[in-house]
TrEMBL record:
It is found in: Mitochondrion membrane. This is Uncharacterized protein. GO terms for biological process: proton motive force-driven ATP synthesis. It comes from Miscanthus lutarioriparius. Its main location: mitochondrion. Belongs to the ATPase g subunit family. Keywords: ATP synthesis, CF(0), Hydrogen ion transport, Ion transport, Membrane, Mitochondrion, Transport.
Length: 122
């Protein structure tokens, strides 16, 4: 345990040293590439205004998303009504999608437990 801690400290020190040497240049490069996205003057008031604009813009998009959701649900209902006309390829794609979704949930659970299968850390 002590060896792992010392190794972690050494890695953290190397990362901090690298960031202190190259961080400023990286920051300048990123800001130069993305200067068209910076609002002038960059003040706290402007940031608060942009934050409110983002919030209310997203809020305004909810009715459109709601309509899109119900259209998608209607198309799924239509496919379910005509399920006897489905091809094997369509069923295979749907099955793969379901398996992938289930796998992501399982992986999420494992990650949530700290990458352990039983929930107990050794």
């Amino acid at each position: 345990m002590a060896a792992k801690l010392a190794q972690l400290r050494a890695q953290a020190a190397r990362a901090a040293e690298f960031a202190s040497k190259h961080g400023g240049a990286y920051y300048k490069e990123v800001m130069e590439k993305n200067k068209q996205y910076v609002v002038q003057p960059p003040t706290v008031e402007k940031c608060q205004e942009l934050s409110k604009q983002l919030f209310y813009t997203r809020l305004a998009s909810l009715p459109g998303r709601y309509e899109a959701f119900w259209k998608e649900l209607d198309s799924v209902k239509q496919v379910w009504k005509n399920r006897k006309d489905l091809k094997v390829e369509d069923l295979g794609i749907a099955t793969l999608f379901g398996v992938e979704l289930y796998a992501w949930f399982c992986v999420g659970e494992i990650v949530g437990r700290g990458f352990t299968l039983t929930g107990y850390k050794v």
